[in-house]
Amino acid sequence: MTTAASARAHARAMVDARWNPSAGPAREEDVTDLLLVVSEMVTNAIRHGGGLAGFEAVPLHDGIRLTVRDHSDVVPSAAYGSGAPPGVHHGSGYGWPLIIRLARDITVDRRPSGGKTISVFVPIRTTAPARGTHLPH
Fold first, then answer.
1. pLDDT digits 0-9 by tens, 2-24
2. Domain limits at 24?
3. Which residues does the UniProt record annotate as the domain Histidine kinase/HSP90-like ATPase (predicted)?
4. pTM of the model as a whole
5. CA 45 to chain centre
6. Domain total of the chain
7. Sign of the C-alpha dihedral computed for residues 93, 68, 51 and 79 taken in this order
8. Does residue 75 belong to any structural domain of this protein?
9. In the chain, at which end, N or C, are there fewer CB atoms within 10 A of the end residue's CB?
């Protein structure tokens, strides 16, 4: 992955494969949240982290674990913030509040070889089947 768009496409493909119609499709609002988190994480790595060094999206039974690696050792000060938007807008500063509000289990670890790894979990729920519809077991 080299762009936010390619990372979003990869994450969407993971959701489509894991939450297919026979297993119960993913709630579209959860997928939208996932794609926003992917965009913010990858864009932050490119703009503020010295470039994207790696991206992974791993499907779990109740969501997707996202991992982004970049080349900067700097841990964003907002990474463990409240999720409140910045008081004054200077062209940036909304990414981390979005990530904090939409993701869970956020970790930021410096890598021994330099740079850092940011990992988050984004929950994905299935839509309820239509009344009278029976999904295979």
1. 899 999 999 999 998 888 777 77
2. 4-84+93-123
3. 9-116
4. 0.83
5. 13
6. 1
7. positive
8. yes
9. C
Q: Structure tokens of 17? A: 């494969």
What are residue 67's phi and psi, to 5 degrees? -135, 125
Could you tell me what percentage of the chain is helix, strand and coil, using 3-state DSSP and rounding each to the nearest 5?
35, 25, 40
CATH number for the domain spanning 58: value is 3.30.565.10
Q: Could you tell me the maximum CA-CA distance found in the chain, to the nearest angstrom?
A: 55
Residue 130 lies in a domain: no
Where do runs of H (alpha helix) occur along 70-112?
Answer: 95-102
Residues comprising the chain, all counted: 137
Tokens (6 digits) for 36: 């926003």
Within a domain: residue 134? no
How big is the CA angle at 76 (ends 11 and 33), to the nearest 5 degrees?
30
